[in-house]
User: Fold this.
Amino acid sequence: MPEILLHSMLLHFLAAALYAGLAAYSWRSAALGTPGLRQWERILLLVALVIHGITLAHEIFADGGMRFGFSVSLSMMIWLAIALYWIESLSTRMEGLQMLGLPLAAVCVLLPALLPGQPLHVNSDSLIFRSHLLIAMLAYSLFTLAALHALLMAVAERQLHKGRLSPLLARLPALMTMEALLFSLINVGFLLLTLTVVSGVFFSEKLFGKALSFDHKTVFGLISWFIFAALLLGRHLRGWRGRLALRWTLSGFVALMLAYVGSRFVIEVILGRAA
Assistant:
């Protein structure tokens, strides 16, 4: 058991070191005016993702059961977000996102090793539960990417209004292109979030062993859904864009994080008990 634990810790630190090294190199490249992923960077990032994925599998399916606390949630969300970024960057210019996403990944990959999740007290072998969990994590990951994208746009827009753009952001695509990509992420994320909410409402008893209750997790989840629904409706009917769209995006993301990750953090770390 100690050998297995040591092996797991080494994998966590190896993935974190790869993410951190690539993040530092991406910041240096951007400062020199040569951002973007080179072929060897793509390969190293893929290696980091594979190692990160192995650590997640070990943390989630430890001891023959299933663990899924706030640290594993964050780690899986950022893993999926970086994986989606890696895939999308093959065909779309997404320079800049790695400068924000990779440092975050370096931190999040270590969290499950430092703060192991609690065993799930639900029917984790259920196909409905696993489908619900996968869809929810994909939705969270897309909104994580969208939030990072929105932050990058906000910084770039502020610098443009001041009449100067730093070398770190000079090679970003045009703001209109970035905005189109942002809403593509939000559209797909909203569809997955809707499926998550619907499956949670209609299969609550099978998923969690009890009827749907309006606790803080449900309330914040619904608030997030309404925020993103209002954003997409405002975009369609009134052409919302720019700072207004960015504020709504970040507000919806914060509500979404409070729905599960925030509540699990309070329960597991502050209160020190399982849900």
User: Anything to note?
Assistant: Residues 2-270 form one domain.
